[in-house]
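WARN  no MSA supplied for this record, continuing single-sequence
INFO  ligand: iron/sulfur cluster
INFO  echoing inputs
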Amino acid sequence: MDAGRLESWLEENAEPKYRAAQIRQAVFKDHVSSYDEIPTLPLALRKRLSRELPILSVSPDRIEISRDGRARKAVLRLSDGRLIETVLLKPSPTRLTTCISSQVGCAIRCSFCATGLMGLTRSLSAEEIADQVLFWRQHIAREGIQGFLTNVVYMGMGEPFNAYNAVAESLRRLTDQRQFAMAARRISVSTSGVAPKIARFGQEFPQINLALSLHAAEDGLRESLVPLNKAYPLKVLAQALRGYLQETNRKIFLEYVMLHGRNDSLQNAKELVQFAKSCGPLPLLHVNLIAYNEAVPGQVATAEPDIRRFQAALLKEGLAVTVRQNLGRDIHGACGQLLVGEMKTPRNVAAPAGRGAGAGS
Ligand code: SF4
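INFO  complex generated
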């Protein structure tokens, strides 16, 4: 749902101005799935809108639910036939979080990540990014799921800062009071370290949370896990994060996936502390330790006691550390597991009319 395009369409078709408000209310507040659920619209208008301006730019290919019921993964089909994945998580009985994608695949190719295996096909448009949230809101309303979708994390498929313009526009839509009306502080964008975009992001979205997928704090090791480190090594990243902290005075989240024998030694913990200290005051940095989810052959998860030992070493040095809950492992919907195995890229299907492909890398 592109609210700007809707308004232009209504104007071009000589519809009264109040129609836009009626439709926005129904779509963004009542979460209707179809124009037929808006009885205040004349029947002929409902039919034309359904044909010419579908509410969603994505459609569900399939939805999987985890055994504990706390995670759902949707494979969504885009208008050009390509597929992406998005996840809905229930970390508490009242709170729902969605993890959304910004690209079809990803060019960064982190060695432990299933999405990285796909390579990059294209970036998503702002509408395709924001529509993942709208899709889940409709799903929650239809299925009568308890809880409210309060949090959005850009940690699905893709590197958000390699689709910067589309991601920025989607953030404006999510926080627009006339559209999604979400609280900026409940939205997080995670980057693998596109340093030049970190400063811009801090200036443009100082209220939105920034997470850095760090995973190692020594250049050689980080390069082997996150190849982007060659372009933006740790020194450059630390400088970008210092600038961000000066600009926003907001906490930065350092994401750290725990891989047995790769990045989980006490020496690695020491390096992480040093890196954090080089970025700014420790109270403004928060480390999230993530138990590795099976995604790529040859990578093994750190055992729980070793994660706790690593956590203790960081805590001792004054860093705030959380071991993240892992929801949705059994449906391959947890961190690093998103992979659309049966990518369909029909050559005879044109790019969607009127929709940009976003600002890809
Ligand atoms: S971890 Fe993120 S940045 Fe790295 S390959 Fe996967 S999706 Fe891309």
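The chain is about 35% helix and 20% strand.
INFO  checksum written, moving to next record
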